[in-house]
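>> received
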Amino acid sequence: MQTRLSGRRGFQLMAQSASGSAIAMVATLCFAIALSGQSTTQPSAQRKSNETASAATPSGPAPVHDLTGVWMMHNPPGSNRGFTNYTFTDPKTDPPSLTTWGEEKFKEAKDSNGGAYTLDQTNDPVLTKCYPPGLPRVYFHPYPFEFVQTPKYVLMLYEYDHIVRRIYTDGRPVPADPDSISEPHDWMGYSVGHWTDDSTLVVDTVGFNEKTWLDRLGHAHSTQLHVIERFHRVDKNNLDLGITMIDPKALAKPWTTTFYYQLRPTWELGEISCSGDYLDFKNFEK
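>> returned
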């Protein structure tokens, strides 16, 4: 069963300031455990009771054109998808195909996820500069997100760092020239969605800066990044998210994956802030 870490404790375990490699490995392990559903911080008795009741409830059919609710990552049992803690496909058997530019940028990355670099050596922009994770990296953070639907757009509210994302569903086209967008959408991009059937929302997102990584391993992207998400509500309680990343400057061919989520009908989003209240970033600044 998937659980999440509590706000303050979860963030501290995910990326606690430290100079020793042992502490870095502990932080990385805690991040991975959170996503696999075996958190070292036990949820409250009420939370556990609510999760048990939710899991025991028959799913039922998916409602029409409706993704409303709080969703949490949940890898299918026995799927052997531990790589989803930090990247999109198995790096040993199915790594992304990179261009020369993408390879050079990847060599510059010093990620603390695999233990090669400690937290005081990494150049991960989320840890060193408190940057937003960006899209699609935001899905690696072990916290839920919520859909709120309106007639004009769908809001995605991510528990991590108060991120709010607007997906327009009013029929407007995807901008052919992202630079023409009047308001900046550099971190999470400019998103336009449409329903392809009763239970599938397809979202195209463009207009990114180059300040974020695609994943926690340090794969870079350019301003040409185009992310396509396919939110398919399988039934009432289960959601599949297909992700395709297209970037002719960074990726030699599209990078694709599928993530899995379960509805948490009794959950409410908390506050997870990338700020001095949780971490002392002066040890990371370069």
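>> The beta strands are 69-73, 145-149, 153-158, 164-168, 190-197, 200-206, 226-233, 238-246, 255-263.
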